[in-house]
Amino acid sequence: MMARRAPRTRAYAPDPDAPTRDCDMAGCEMPAAYRAPKSRTELRHYWWFCLEHVRAYNASWDFYKGMSPGQIEAHLRADTAWQRPSWPLGQNGAPVAPEDLLRDPLGVLRDGAAAATRRKKPEEERPPKELREPLMIMSLPWPVTWEDIRSRYKELAKRYHPDANGGSREAEERLKVINQAYATLRRGLAGEPARNGNASEQAA
């Protein structure tokens, strides 16, 4: 046997808390079984009407009556936060500590970030494309310091200087290539200020 459904409350069922009194509409002596707010500013203070007059009252009710467009917009914005003040992310506008912004008790995000760092590491250890050939010419590893470059350049300049090679044309051409590589590394090394003069003067 199927259980009977509980009867629905009628949309205009009398208020169980209604006082024993006549309708507040002037001249009406019907029982006041329905309440309606007195005004926008008195939403918890009620008129008590009969069914006919509460319907008429509700039909003519305009919550925003007497408000300017700006006041209406401000009220609608306040309604989105249930008429309560709101603050930026945090407690009452206080800044949020990074560790409190997103908790990760199992370390899932931490491990993922570490793995991403490991994947990027080989790429980060490679020199910029424009510095790869100069580094190879001067037989320098990467990363490299400015002092390493200066020291290596002095060594190569001394080795391939024409005066040290009996005026060898081949040594002279090799030194030109080294000078160009040195100048490129000097310009490309992060934070190294530009200097005037040729490479051999700067290395002195």
UniProtKB/TrEMBL annotation:
Organism domain of life: Bacteria
Record field: compositional bias (Basic and acidic residues): 121-131
Keyword annotations from UniProtKB, A to Z: Chaperone
The keyword Lipid biosynthesis appears for this protein: no
Keyword Transcription regulation found: no
Matching Gene3D superfamilies: DnaJ domain
Pfam families: DnaJ
Domain J: 133-190
Segments of this protein annotated with the region Disordered: 112-131
PANTHER family per UniProt: DNAJ HOMOLOG SUBFAMILY A MEMBER 3, MITOCHONDRIAL
Name used for this protein in its record: Molecular chaperones (DnaJ family)
Organism: Granulibacter bethesdensis (strain ATCC BAA-1260 / CGDNIH1)
